[in-house]
Amino acid sequence: MNGTGLLVIISGPSGAGKTTIAHEVERRVGATFSVSMTTRAQTAKDVDGQDYVFVSDERFRAEIERGGLLEWAEVFGRCYGTPREPVERAVADGRTMLLEIDVQGAVQVKEKMPDALTIFILPPDEATLLQRLRDRKREGEDQIQKRFAEARREIALARESGAYDVFIVNDDLERAIGEAEGRVRERMSASG
């Protein structure tokens, strides 16, 4: 891919604020948000094709087999992946494409697309993260504790992987958004 576009990857554990930050950066810089494919059940809040592309296990496996996914991972028993073609087309066309994916996926993509800008969103501390998970009121305490343990593992993996260019602590949402936006604009200027 010889386009002048930019691939931006934003990751972070559940409760760190990555989705809010990613969507605000998308809006502010005019990026295209990559829609992940998943086998998880669609919730009442989800819009198919906008939040995720919801598919069966069989369809997801077929995409893996044909090489149609840039990355994929199994998380909490469900598969998530990034369709390859829209990302490659956007970057080749000179656009900024934004992916919100987990650490496993970011490592896979960074190996294939080393020019990608990778940002990891951190919570201020573990106590704040645990409280944010509880405040969402989406799950029981057992599931919250599983997510908290997974978040701790994911943060450690992100630091050890070497795949991330930037770590941003989300202790103040507007500041964290501004920092992420600044890093993206800096890279857009350099590549454009």
Topology of this protein?
Layout lengths: L5 E6 L6 H12 L2 E2 L3 E2 L14 E2 L2 H9 L3 E7 L2 E6 H9 L3 E5 L2 H10 L4 E6 L3 H10 L5 H21 L4 E4 L3 H19 L1
Parallel strand pairs: 1-7, 1-8, 2-7, 3-4, 8-9
Antiparallel strand pairs: 3-6, 5-6
Helix pairs in contact: 1-7, 5-6
Description:
Keywords: ATP-binding, Cytoplasm, Kinase, Nucleotide-binding, Transferase. One of its GO terms (cellular component) is cytosol. It comes from Mucisphaera calidilacus. The protein has helices at 18-29, 57-65, 84-92, 103-112, 126-135, 141-161, 173-191; strands spanning 6-11, 32-33, 37-38, 53-54, 69-75, 78-83, 96-100, 117-122, 166-169. With 192 residues, the chain is α/β, with parallel strands linked by helices. It has one domain (6-191): Rossmann fold, CATH 3.40.50.300. The strands form two sheets. The chain has a five-stranded parallel β-sheet, with helices on both faces. A four-stranded mixed β-sheet has the order 4-3-6-5. Strand 5 and strand 6 form a beta hairpin. The longest helix is centred in the last third of the chain and has 21 residues, at 141-161. The chain starts with 5 loop residues before the first strand and ends with a helix. The model has no long low-confidence stretch (mean pLDDT 92).
